[in-house]
Please model this.
Amino acid sequence: MIDKQNTIVVIPARMASTRLPGKPLADIHGLPMIVHCWKRAVEADIGQVLVAAAEVEIADAVRSRGGDAIVTNPALPSGSDRIAEALALRDPQRRFDYVVNLQGDLPTIDTLSIRRCLAGLLNEAADISTIAALIDDAEDVANPNIVKAISPLSEQREVAFARDFVRNAGPEHQPPFWHHIGLYAYRRPVLERFVALPVSAREAERKLEQMRALDNGMRIVVVRVDTVPLGVDTPEDLETARRMLRKS
Model:
């Protein structure tokens, strides 16, 4: 059992977004998107929740709604780096042993997916846990914007180790294919080691940060979930999120 007293969910957020500037503060029914993500993490009830903000206005928006936020260096290159810095600033006493990285553009994620991601670390051989859902559409299989977790998951097998992560499935890859969802749970020393490593060759080639972990011998367990949350990257995605979260 993973004790929630030893667990923290950190949500990295920054204002700089090419396709949707100011994305964390985009309004969804009177609340900024980052606050919706914070609320989903709180509802998951797996530990403390902290927003790692690149800008003061993001932190202020979260704090004004009762959330916890910390301002980090805006020049950090990735969300993982932002999480590691926030953790070092907030918890130098190393109270937290488990860290969940929840992206700040997933306002519709269901709380069960967050819990299942953390639960993947119950496997003592796992360094990192992530989640994936079955792809049942041929167009999605062919879409390079949908990252596939290559893992021996099945209807009967809910947890398995990742063999690879690819954008383009080749003849060497056999179905079923699994839609990788960018939610991660780390053992804290693994996160600290990960951000200290240089970008790996396959990470740079595929633009997939998780390849750095595989390329350095880290074991990533993939947990099967039922749904893919909406990632908000464009104004059209934002309108979809508003429809999905419309109050009844």
